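Below is the record:
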Amino acid sequence: MIQNSGLQGLKLSRSKPTLTHLLFVDDSVIYAKATSREVEKIKDILHSYASKSGQTINLAKSSLCFSPNTPSDVIRSISSILHINKLDVPNKFLGLPSDIPKSKRQIFCLCKERIANKTASWKEQLLSKGGKEVLSN
C-alpha cells in the first residue's frame, strides 16, 4: 500500500531511490513531506491497513517526527489530523535516528561501520581456539 501510495518520501541522494518506509516486525516508519496531501495519503494507508488486516493502529504508541524547519502550525495541523503526538525526544528506529539530518552520508557511514564491526565479531566467534590465537598475533 505504501509503495503504491505516491508518497514523496525521503530522498537520500540524487541517484538513489526515495525512502518511503522502514518495516520491522510490528514497527513501521513512514517518511513523507509535511503537506496536507501527504498526510491524507498516510491517513488512508493507516485506515486501509486496519480495515484489511483487522488490526488496530495504536495511536498512543505512535509518534510524529518533523524536520527542524517545519513551522509549528503545520506540526499542530498534521498532529491533529492524524491524532498522533509529535515526538519531542530524539529517537532511533532500527539503529538509525528517526530525524535524519541533511548529512545522510555521516549517518549511513556509522551504520555501515557498525555492520562491519558486528560481522567481524561473528567471524572471530566462528574461529577455533588456535585460529583466534593466530588472529590476535
